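Contributing new records

If you add data, match the layout below exactly. Sequence lines come first and carry their own label; structure lines follow with theirs. Keep one chain per record. Anything else will be rejected by the validation script.
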Amino acid sequence: MIKKILLVLTISILMLSISGCTDEVTEETPVNAIPEGSTSQSLVPADNLPQNYEFLGSLELSVEKIGRSYVPVYGLVGGYEGLYMYLDTTDVYVDVIELDSSASAENFIAQYKASFTELSSGERFTELVINDNSATRIVEYSTIGKDNVPRYTYIWSNDKFVFVVGGATDDYVVLSTLAESTGY
């Protein structure tokens, strides 16, 4: 009889330890969550890039440069730009801009989008999802020779970081693939 009780107790203890039953409640971290302590430099993708993309290097973006290139808003901390080559012919980039809060990041995007004028035909902004984040694809037109050629930019925020992906291509898939490679 004692053997049976010991066997039941042993099995019960073993089952509890295997199942991991505890009183702690754990939150599941979203796949695209920015790791704590991340910097704009650490979020520039350099490894595990999609096929046909080559990382050329990165450079620091000062608050002043970000203000001139995008919009000068309150809360800018700084940023980094990753430079890439697609198929040895196309220059593309990922800018990771750090702000002091997620609200400042959202304000940055709103102010940047507000800096564009309406297109005479078609839509300038296309709302979409990148890595489970609401994102915007922005189209601008450049005159190359006698043609107006579309140029695309993707922009979205995750926590206090704003990601901007663009480059010298009229193929928005090239840019969306690079945008997805950020993982954020």
